[in-house]
Design a protein that fits this description.
about 50% helix, five-stranded mixed sheet, alpha+beta
Length: about 140
Amino acid sequence: MLPLLFTFSLLVPNLSWNVRPVTFDTMKSTLNLWRDDYQELSLEYNSTFEMIGWHATTANKDCLGLYHNYELRALSQVFQSGKEIHLRSLITPEDEDVAGTILMYKLLEFDIKVDWEALKLNPRWYIAALFIKENSTFFCE
């Protein structure tokens, strides 16, 4: 019976949302893939270039991704300043409605600070961060 249970557990996808570090190469290839679905010169389209450029030229930074069923559904960029970690950007594929909010909530839940000036460049995620920060108990119920 044990081999059957072990085999079955490998076939069932992980149904939870997981935050994990993302390598620069994975971030870059994912952003290039997602860019194909964005309207050319839209905020999201331009953000893909900005995120790749920032990540390639900045020290003390990382990229965190939100995975669902082993599929990358949202990307964020964070950097360290002193002892604090700050969120500076977030992006999702064009057809994604939920993952960005989940990632934002999870990052703020870990007491990651927000670089409000950088996040203002993307009003969608700036407003989401403000809402989540002010209404965090809403998500806990």
